Amino acid sequence: METYHGHVRTPADAIILFEACRIGLLPRVQRRLSEKERQSIRSGSIFVWDEREAGMRRWTDGKSWSASRVSGSFLTYREMEGKRGGSGLSTPLFSGNASKVGSKPGDQDSNDDGPDGYRYKPDGLMKQSFSITTSSGQHLHLISYYSRTISAAQNLVQPSNDANLRHIRPERGMYPESTVHDHSSIPPVTQGPMSGAGYAPVTAHPMPPNGSPYARTAPGGPTGPYPGFTAPTWAPPSPMNTPPPHYPPYY
């Protein structure tokens, strides 16, 4: 059921996988995961789906996750042990217009305890989500899982370094230009847990300036480091029923 096994480190990696799915080289997820498939999720599992084709916006995996944190164009989550009576959570998605990915593998927390009985899972996974809208109107989503240990992350192949995918050339004009050529290195997490209203449609363009507290200016000035660069100006809410957002940061 996996689309790919590896580690997405940059938006360009995600675009390679989107294109490989488009031309039929890799499979897209067509439905929600079964219970058995959820239990098979491991470090390196990557899933890609088309919102309309699969009939779903949100991803459910039966696991408990921390509130989301922004990492460049991605949302990043850390697996929780949850609390007695807790249930699996769904993952809201974030528009990937530009920039980078991921929290640093191997970072350690000064305190793994959260409030109200929640606790980070010591050997738990990290999860990151990425979404774009193509020029043809497809809403494409990617969810990837990876271990927080440096050695485990290093053993996962990066799509842009995969010999089986080196011939992949994203169709011109299909994807936002700012993501196709973005091979930037991994940045730190840039925002804390988020809260707010419900899911908003994903687009490849900046959201209207409604005074979002998450508006940011791209490095290098308002126009970004190169033509066509658009910095994300919004972020979706944390999933419902996630642990309270005032536990110690993990970055």
Amino- and carboxy-terminal Cα gap: 31 Å
Sequence stretches where pLDDT stays below 50 over 5 or more residues: 84-89, 92-110, 188-226, 229-251
Helix content: 10-25%
Major sheet: size, sense and barrel closure? 7 strands, antiparallel
What is the total domain count?
A: 1
Report the β-strand fraction as a percent range. 15-25%
Count of DSSP-assigned helices: 5
Structural shape = globular
Briefly note the structural class of the backbone.
alpha+beta
Let me know the average pLDDT: 72
In quaternary terms, these chains amount to: single chain
Order of helices and strands: EHHEHEEEEEEEHH
- What's the count of strands? 9
Region (Disordered): 81-123, 206-251
InterPro entries: Gti1/Pac2
Biased composition (Low complexity): 213-233
Biased composition (Polar residues): 89-100
Detailed description of the structure:
The chain is α+β, with helices and mostly antiparallel strands and 251 residues long. It contains five helices and nine strands. It is globular. The chain is 12% helix and 17% strand. It has one domain.
Task: Quickly list its features.
Gti1/Pac2, alpha+beta, single chain, seven-stranded antiparallel beta sheet, cAMP-independent regulatory protein pac2, globular, DNA binding, 9 strands, 251 residues
How would you summarize what this structure contains?
With 251 residues, the protein is an alpha+beta fold. It is 12% helix and 17% strand.
